[in-house]
Amino acid sequence: MRYRVFLFLGRYFLYRIIDILGGILVRKRLTSLTFKQKLIIFSVIISTLPILILGLSSSYIVRKSIQEEVDTNHQTVLKQIQFQLDNFVKNLQISALSIASDKTIEKAMLLPPPSDNVSQSLELTDILIKHQSFSSIRFTASLIYKKYDFAFSNKSPLFFYEIMDKVQPKFNATFVVTPNTYANQDELLLFSPVPRHTYYSDGILALHVTIQELTNFLEKLTFGHRSKVFIVDETGRVIVSQNKDEIGTKLADTNDLYHFWKDPDGFEGSFVLKGEQYKLTAQTSSLNNWTYIAMTPIREFTEKSDKIQRLTWLLFAAIALVWTVIAFIGSSRLYVPVERMLRRFTDEHKLDRTGKEGLEAIDSMMKQMASANIEMQKKLSEHMPYLRESLFHHLLRGEMTEKEFLQKSEQLELPFAGPVFAVCMATVDDFNLFIQTYSQKDRPLIHFALRKIFEETCENELACLTFSFQPGQVTAVFGFEKESAEIEGKLAVLMDRFREHVREYFRFTVSVAISRPRQGFGGTQDCFQEAVGLLGHRLLLGPNVTITEQKIAPSMKQSGRALVQGMKDIAHSLIQGKTGEAVEQLDALIATVAKGAYSSEMATGLFSYLLGELDYFMNELDCSLEDFFQEDLYKRLSSLHTLKEVRDWLADTVFPEVVSKLESYNVSKQKRLIQQVLLDIHEHFETDVSLQQTADHFGIHPSQLSRMFKEVTGMNFIDYLIQFRMRKAADWLAQTQLPIKDIAERLRYSSVQNFSRVFKQVIGVPPGEYRKQHNASAE
C-alpha cells in the first residue's frame, strides 16, 4: 500500500511539472503568433469545438450507460449463478441426507464393514447408485465406519479423519470442503453423519464432486464468451472457476482481485489480467457467505463508445480542414482593413513598424501617436499663455473681429465667458526708474510677478486674464455674467489693493486705469482704447492712482486729451520724417505744460509718455528706441532740470536721430506714412473720415495718398475704411443691443438703407439677419 501511495504521488507531481512546462511552451508559442494566425486558429477552434464536445460527451454518455447496463446485467447473472449454485449445494445436501437416512445404510453402519462380505458390498453399491440416479448432480459416495476404521471408498479412512479433525463440525451439521483444500483432495466434498441423529460418532458419509463436474456446471451458467466467473469462499479460496487450475487456490493479498474480494464497494479502478483490463462485479451469498465475482473485458462495453470517438475525431479532422481553408480565406479578407490602416500609418505618418506585424504594429504606432499627442499637449499647455496673449493683443488692437476671435479661442481655456467685459491697465509711474533698476533680462520676470500679483489679488472675487503688451505695463481683462453699476466700484477696490501690493513688494509704484464695462469680446477693443486714454490723465493726477471715468473732471479731460493728442501728433510727424513740424508741435506742447503749472514730476512723466508713445509707433514699424540710442533716454530725461533743457534735447538730439535711423533702417516714408494713416483710421472711424481730409491732415495730395495706400495695403482707401467700419458694425450687432439706426449714425451713414446695403455687400447678409444668426448660434 505504501508503495502504491508513493507511486501515485510521484506520477502526480511528474504530470504537474509536465503540464506547467507544456503551458509555458504553449503560451510562448501563442504569443509569437501573429494576429492573423490567431484569428485563423480561433475560427477553427470555435467552429470545431462544438463537434468535439458533442462527440466526446456522447461517447461518455454511451460508455456510462453501457457500463451501468453491464453492472446491472452482471448483478442479475450473478444472482442467477448464486441461485443455481445454492441449488446445486442444496441438491447435494438433499442427496447426502437421503443416503444418510436410508435404513439399509443405517443398519450397515451398525454391522461390521463389508470387507469380506461380497453380498453386503454389492447391496451398498446398489443403494448408492440408486441415490445417484435420483440426483441431477454427478457424484460418488464414501462411507466411513469409525468403529472399525474402515472406509467404503477408494481412499483411506485417515484421509477423512484428517479433514474431520481440522474442520471439527458441530453436532450433526453437514459441511462442504472445497477442492484442493487439503493434500490429495482434488474434489468437492460434502460430509454428513450416518445415522443422521449421531454426531459423526458412528459413521460418516462423504459425497465427492469432481472439479470437471463443477466446471461443466459453471460453463452452463456463464455469460459472454470472454467473461470470467469466480466463486470464492469466506477464506479467499477459489471454489469454482472456468480454469481448473484456479480451483482450490487462494487469492494472494498482493492481487487486486483479493482487494476487490475484501471490499468490493471500496475498490477503485479496473483489474488487469494478462495485459487486459476487466470490469469487476461481486455478489455475496447469504446462504454460505461465498462471493460470486464476474469479470468482463472493458473493451466489450467501450467498443461502441470508442467507435463514436473515432467517428468524432474523423468528423473533427474533416471539419477542421474545411474550416481552416475557410478561416484562412476569411481572415485574409477581414485583415485587409488592418493592412490598409497599417500602410496609411507607415506612409502618411512615417511611424516605425520595424519587426512588428499587424495590430501589434498599429498598437505600437498608436502608442507613438499618443506619446506625441501628450508631448504636443504639454507644449501647447506651456505655450497657452503666449497664445492667449497674442490673440487678445490682436483683439484689443482691433486687428481681429470678435467672430474670428471666438473661432480661434475654443482651446484657450478662458476662465470666463462674459458676456460683459472690462479692461484694467496698470503702468509703471516712473518708467525711467523702472528701466534703471531692472535690466532687460530681469524685466520679463518683473512683468510676470506683476501679473501674478494682479491675478492673486483678484482670484477670490473675480476671474481675469492678464497680459503684458509693453514694457512696464500690465493689461487685465475681466468677465462678468451681467452688466451692473457695482462693477466699476468693485474693480476700483481691487485695483487699490493691487497698487498697495506693488508698492509693498517693489521699489516703484503703478497707476491703474479702469474702463467701463461693455458687451461681448468685441467691446473689449473699446474698453482697451478707453483704458489707454484714461492712463493719459495720470500725468495730471499724479503717481500711484486708480483712474476711472468718474474721477476725471471735464476740464482735466479736455486738458489731458489735448496733451495726449499733441504727443501723438509729434510721434506722427517724426514717423513721417517731418522733423521741423515735430519741433513746432513740441514747442506748443511745452507752452501748454508751462501754462498749466504742472509739477516737475508730472512734467517728467508727460515727456516720458511722449517717449513711450514714440516707441509704440516705432514698434508698429518693427523698430525700437533702444535700437537707435546707446544711452538710456529715460535716465537722460530725468537728469534735465528745465523745460528748455528738455526742449533742446528732444529737438536737437532725439528727433533728428529718430528720423535718421528710420531712413537708415530702410523703412520707407511711404510705409511709415501709411502706418500712421491706418492708426488714424482706427482712432477716427466714427467721424467723417475721407481721403481728402486724411490727405490734408498728413500734408499729402489725395491721389498720391490713394496710390501709396493701395501699394502698401493692397486695398483702396475707401474700401479699407468701409471694411473696417463694417467689422465694427458686425461686432456691435453681435455683442450689443444697439439699434441698427444708431450703429448707422455712429458710422456716419445718412440712412439705414445705405448702411444695410453696404453691410450686405461686405458681410453677405443684412444687419438684422446677421444679428439673428449670431443670437441663434449663441443660444
TrEMBL record:
Residue ranges occupied by any HTH araC/xylS-type domain in the UniProt entry: 675-773
UniProt protein name: HTH araC/xylS-type domain-containing protein
Q: Does this UniProt record's set of keywords contain Phosphoprotein?
A: no
Compartments where located: Cell membrane
Carries keyword DNA-binding? yes
Q: In the record, what terms sit under GO molecular function?
A: DNA-binding transcription factor activity; sequence-specific DNA binding
Q: Which taxonomic lineage does the organism of this UniProt entry have?
A: Bacteria, Bacillati, Bacillota, Bacilli, Bacillales
Q: Where are the transmembrane segments?
A: 6-27, 39-62, 313-336
Q: Which SMART domains match?
A: HTH_ARAC (SM00342)
Which InterPro entries has this protein been placed in? CdaR_GGDEF, dCache_1, Homeodomain-like_sf, HTH_AraC, HTH_AraC-typ_CS
What is the topology of this protein in the membrane according to its UniProt annotation?
Answer: Multi-pass membrane protein
UniProt keywords, alphabetically: Cell membrane, DNA-binding, Membrane, Transcription, Transcription regulation, Transmembrane, Transmembrane helix
Name the PANTHER family for this protein.
ARAC-FAMILY TRANSCRIPTIONAL REGULATOR, REGULATORY PROTEIN POCR
GO CC annotations, alphabetized: plasma membrane
